[in-house]
Amino acid sequence: MNVNSIDSDSSAALVLVGAPNSGKTTLYNWLTASHFTTVNYPGSTVEFNKGTLAARFGEPHFQIIDSPGTYSLFPKSEDEVVTQKLLFQSREKTNIVGVVIVMDGTQLPRQLILAEQIKEAGLPMILVLTMTDVLSKQQIILNKNILVEYFNCAVLGFDGLLGRGLDELVNQLRSMVPSDLSNLLTSVPIRDIPPSIWSSEKMEQKTIECEELAEKSLRHSRGAVDFQTQTAKLDRWLLHPLWGPLLFVLVMTLLFASVFWLATPLMDLIDSGFSYIAEEIVNLNKDSLLAQFVGNGLVASMGAVLVFVPQIFILFLGIGLLGDSGYLARGASLIDRPLSKLGLTGRSFVPLLSGFACAVPALMATRNISSKRDRWITNFIIPLLTCSARLPVYALLIGFLFYGESSLKAGFFLAFLYVLALLIAGVLAGLLNFLMPKKDPSFLVMELPLYRRPKFEGVLSQSLRRTKMYIKRAGFPIFTISTLIWVSSHFPNYQNSNVADRINTSYLGQAGKVIEPVLKPMGVDWRVGVGLLSAFAAREVFVSTLAIVFDVTADNVEDIQDTLIGQMKSAINSEGKKVFTIGSVLGLLVFFMVAMQCISTFAVSMRESGSLLFATSQLFLFNLIAYALAVGIFQLTTRIIGE
Amino acid sequence: MTLLTGIKYTLDLQKREKTKGSITKSDYKVLKIEGDEQICSRLREIGLRSGLTVGYLGRAPFNGPIFIQFKNSFWALRQNEAECVHIHNPSETMASSLTEGAGR
């Protein structure tokens, strides 16, 4: 997804407007066949999506804009401000010729209020009612004519599950777009001023009118499936003061356990697959530098990118299924109170959860947090969560600490590291909450969707899209820097057959030696420094870099890890002391836990906060704390238990 | 009386009467929305208004959000948000619903 400027396209556009959870984005994906660019609203960090009508609908095309979800035209969150600006201040720039109001058909009364406001503003509009499948299951019949008469515009139904009603909708949309674009601005009445804010009396009056209108246009029949009662019954357990939180912990534990159990075999498969390909390529011609570069450089770094895909995908899939079933919103409100003590909100929950897969999508998921301050604090601590890129590093270092001991101990230690990272993030959030002035109020007012069976196909394609986005955003820097590491570890003395010697004199080795004085207090030497430098591409590159600088070659993955640990056990520095001791390895673990080393995270953090200062202060603060902790732990451990 | 105090009142009453289960459904009638302007405005936008009947579903632990239901939709409101929803005295509404039930 490219970020374009707002006036990149001169063709006419229709904008989808609707409340959060109205099914707006589902409709958008159907209309654009999920091909769209994400556009930054000028002067704001909030984005909206802009796409062209999918080719399969034929000519003529027009643009479709997906605005951030809004409850009314009187904005309270950054997202809502963008929608309002789109509709009123920048219509000339975006060529918006009409508004498509998307409403959840099962929540008609309150959703009609937004339509009423847009009607009052005098914008050309049509109404689209989603969730028609749920309506028909409940045997509710919609009488469109009443709405058509009231709003004096077209009203269409749309079933997001199967795409029913799409062709009719596209025809209707076409009729809204003027054929002659040159007199676009004169053919459509322009209003640059948003409607004046409704008084509370007017709002109540309108609410009652909308309720009556909805009552008239929906005809209920007796004896139908009652989703509301079903949901209320389930909530009696799922929101129970005692069972609710217990079930919540259980669900989250299951989610994380499945991420590990299900992903591990897939990850092993990808890992050994790429190792095999790399080896075969090198074996083609052992003396050729090109074969080595393609095999150990390109293919191996490609493997480094793809090895996390199963974990990230499974976590997204789990989050997607929970979200679609309606449970996630309840989980988020269950822990809103503890989170609000740390200056966060229940809405921070899903982004924080995604942070355990990868910080990049997690940072992007914070956009619907209405309070700027809550969003700021959430974004600040996300890089501290244990993303999956840290795992290979943890696996290696924990493997070193518990060499030859039971895997249960190692497992507990890993869990301890996860909890510790959460604690550090929590303390930092609490500190920021204490220090930052409280200006605007923070809301919850969160809708709890009706429980329903998740639409597996929809969730699957959404998870695939998000995983692809991860590969696109994180893949390129990981790939580039891995390649760079390979090149700089082979040159200038690439002909030297003694590998240790070659690395010692390589550009990478020289860079490692330059930073060695800084690393000494951590108890490690330049080779680890090389690893740490390479970890700025992506943390997991640390492991493959160590394997390169310690010249580990083996037939399969487990052997690489075992051989590497063996090499680490015997590695001594220039003063003849051991490089990897309990102290230095513990220090490294904590360093990796806290440090912000990922270029992609930095870039996305800067973009999402709209501030270079924000991202830079994260970078410096986290890395300084990480370094201080690593030095402290090494010095302390060495004094207590010796070297 | 606010929605929050109303709920606490009913819960206490139920406890005293040893009514089984803490999430017994109870209904409240909204009198007015009043308090912090931003919060009230958001509450009105989600369709809350005077005269509406609000059902109580439960609450999160540690004085967390309360869960309510009205007009086919379910919501979580923080306690300070629920403070902005003023209701008719639940004992009155309960009495009227009791007579209603008896009449059926």
Explain what you see:
The complex is a heterodimer of chains A (643) and B (104). Chain A is of the alpha/beta class. Chain A folds into 2 domains: 3-225, P-loop containing nucleotide triphosphate hydrolases (Rossmann fold); 226-643, no CATH class. Helix content of chain A is 61%, strand content 8%. Chain A contains 30 helices and 11 strands. In chain A, strands 1-3-4-5-2-6-7-9 form an 8-stranded mixed sheet, sandwiched between helices. In chain A, strand 3 (36-40) and strand 4 (47-52) form a beta hairpin. In chain A, helix 11 runs antiparallel to helix 12, helix 21 packs parallel to helix 26 and helix 23 packs across helix 25. The longest helix of chain A is centred in the middle third of the chain and has 42 residues, at 243-284. The radius of gyration of chain A is 28 Å and the shape is elongated. Chain A starts with a strand and ends with a helix. The model of chain A is unreliable at 1-8 and 40-45 (pLDDT under 50). By secondary structure, chain B is an alpha+beta fold. Chain B has one domain: Ferrous iron transport protein A (FeoA) (SH3 type barrels, Roll). Helices cover 39% and strands 27% of the residues of chain B. Chain B contains 4 helices and 5 strands, in the order αβαβββαβα. A 5-stranded antiparallel sheet of chain B has the order 4-3-2-1-5. In chain B, strand 3 and strand 4 (73-77) form a beta hairpin. Chain B starts with a helix and ends with a helix. The chains are: A alpha/beta (643), B alpha+beta (104). Chains A and B meet through helix 4, helix 9, helix 10, helix 14 and helix 15 of A and helix 2, strand 2 and strand 4 of B.
